[in-house]
Design a protein that fits this description.
The chain contains two helices and two strands, in the order αββα. The protein has helices at 27-35, 84-100, and strands spanning 38-41, 69-72. It is α+β, with helices and mostly antiparallel strands. 23% of the residues lie in helices and 7% in strands.
């Protein structure tokens, strides 16, 4: 029996650091989460976003979903310890979410 060709589809979209989805279901909520806590380099991938040896079957880091950012609890890291690269990635994610806000129409339920 001849072998059949199979096509593998790999998404190269990185996940949102707040919700983990590739396309945020609620950009306003993600923006709220991102702006109300401290975010820095992922301690597994060192901010690269790639899985590397930690998870060899994955393209992106499973901890930060490829964003390179993780949320830190207060006192765990100081703003001075956040790298410039992490600050740039954070600013890019926030800008992307702000741009998505006008396009996102939340579904409203009407009480009867």
């Amino acid at each position: 029996m001849p072998a059949s060709a199979r096509t593998a589809h790999v998404s190269l979209d990185r996940g949102c650091p707040a919700c983990g989805h590739r396309r945020c279901p609620d950009p306003a909520e993600c923006l709220n989460v991102l702006t109300s806590s401290l975010w820095g380099d992922c301690n597994i991938c060192a901010g690269s976003g790639f899985a590397g040896d930690y998870s060899p079957l994955d393209v992106f880091c499973p901890v930060c979903t490829g964003s390179g950012l993780i949320e830190y609890v207060p006192g765990e890291i100081t703003p001075d310890e956040i790298t410039e690269d992490a600050k740039d990635r954070y600013a890019a994610v926030v800008a992307r979410l702000v741009a998505l806000l006008p396009q996102h129409q939340p579904s409203l339920a009407v009480a009867s």
